[in-house]
Structure formats: C-alpha cells, structure tokens
Amino acid sequence: MYSCNCYSGWTGVNCQINENECGSNPCTNGDCLDEPNMYSCNCYSGWTGVNCQIDIDDCSAEACANGGTCVDHLNAYTCECPKGFRGAICENDDPCASNPCMNDCSCSVVNDTTAVCTSDSVYITGTFCEQGRLTYVSF
Ligand SMILES: [Ca+2]
Ligand SMILES: [Ca+2]
C-alpha cells in the first residue's frame, strides 16, 4: 500500500487527474482552458484581462474628427459630434449649420451632405426657399 502526496492541481490515487480549475467559470467573456494547477482564458473579441473582464477601449485620440467625443462599445466605438458636424466620425459639416434656408423656412437634414428647406407657405418655393416672399398682413 502506498499513498501519493500530489502536487498542487493534481489528484487521484496516482496523482494522474488534472484538477479542473475552470469549474468556477472564471473567464467572464471568454473560453477557459484548463492547465496544470491553473487556467487561462481565451477572450472573445473585444475583451481582455486575465479573466476577460475588461472591455477593450476602442477609442483613440484620433477616433473622432472635428472634436467629436468618442464612446466606447464592444469591439466598436461611436462619435458624439459637436454642433455643426455630422457623420459616423463627425467628418462632415452639418448641412443645416450654415443656415441655408431663406424666408423663415425650416432646415431638415437629409443626409450628411444634403439639407432640404421647407416652408408652411405655398408661395415660398425653391431649394433654399429663395423664391417668393413671406408677407405678413395686419388688419
Ligand atoms: Ca488543471
Ligand atoms: Ca470596447
């Protein structure tokens, strides 16, 4: 009869069993790899840290143009643009920022480079409401 005094991480009569250090699911956002007396984590995309618990900061100083504020997401980032700029990374001027509409028309952004001007009055026409004139009548 004999008994073995096993090294840490091993068990069984002959210390032949590799104990499972992954049993407690230590890898928050990754796959656990059981190793002798330890575990390692193979992190999913966008995560880092010993237990994959850290969301990688995807923002860099140059992430957003024109002073936009970078917001980190999982494996991605978005930009919050300052007034006057639009686009995924604030790379475009807001087409309404230059107040292109005349005659009290309201400006609506169609896309990053196009705006439309609309008027309540049927007498005001033109892309920038430049035709016709709004007249106020008082009694
Ligand atoms: Ca192990
Ligand atoms: Ca991230």
From TrEMBL:
Name this polypeptide is given: EGF-like domain-containing protein
Gene Ontology biological-process annotations: establishment or maintenance of epithelial cell apical/basal polarity; heterophilic cell-cell adhesion via plasma membrane cell adhesion molecules
Superkingdom of origin: Eukaryota
Residue intervals of the EGF-like domain: 1-16, 18-53, 55-91, 92-130
Keywords: Disulfide bond, EGF-like domain, Glycoprotein, Repeat, Signal
Secretion signal, residue range per the UniProt entry: none
InterPro entries: EGF (IPR000742), EGF-like_Ca-bd_dom (IPR001881), EGF-type_Asp/Asn_hydroxyl_site (IPR000152), EGF_Ca-bd_CS (IPR018097), Notch_Cell-Fate_Det (IPR051022)
Intrachain S-S bonds: C6-C15, C22-C32, C43-C52, C81-C90
GO cellular component: plasma membrane; protein-containing complex
The organism of origin for this protein: Strongylocentrotus purpuratus (Purple sea urchin)
GO molecular function, one term: calcium ion binding
Xref: SMART domains: EGF, EGF_CA
